[in-house]
Give the backbone structure.
Amino acid sequence: MSELLTPRGDYGSASFSRRNRMRRAVWGLAWALLFRPTPRPAHRWRAGILRLFGAKVERGTHVYPRVRIWAPWNLDLREECGVGDDAILYSMDAITIGRRAVVSQGAHLCCGTHDYDDPDFPLRAYPIVVGDRAWICAEAFISPGVQIGEGAVVGARSVVTRDIEPWTVCAGSPCRVVRNRSACEKAGGFEG
């Protein structure tokens, strides 16, 4: 369910609590000083920093230094997933990236939107889930509330506004199924 972030009838007030804004300010400083300037192979270091800020980060996760993260405490990064440089994790709500899933460079996972049917234009947030072994290709956009199924592939620069079924290849704007990945599904995926 969506979280109403902007108070009704108070258009000029902040959408988030003072505590939330302070946490994000401290995170922004830590990102600039301790996360962003690290060498590319320093995945454990960056995972440790994310954990300090409340992210759930499992073993073998690769988050590259130029990833932009809005609120790390809303991240759940499962075992051996990867998030490429210049990806944006706009985590106003929870973002879960499944086991061995890949979010490629420049992809944008956006949990926040506005209710444009309401004259007060309130900010809303919905969680995003990327299933195990899914691949979000370069510069794809994932809309608030979308679930990407296990083993699904979202083509480069696609715009995803609806859930994607497991083991499908999708592309375009709006994103549509191109074909199935049934051979991979029957083989049990990419277990090594």
About this structure: The mean pLDDT is 91.
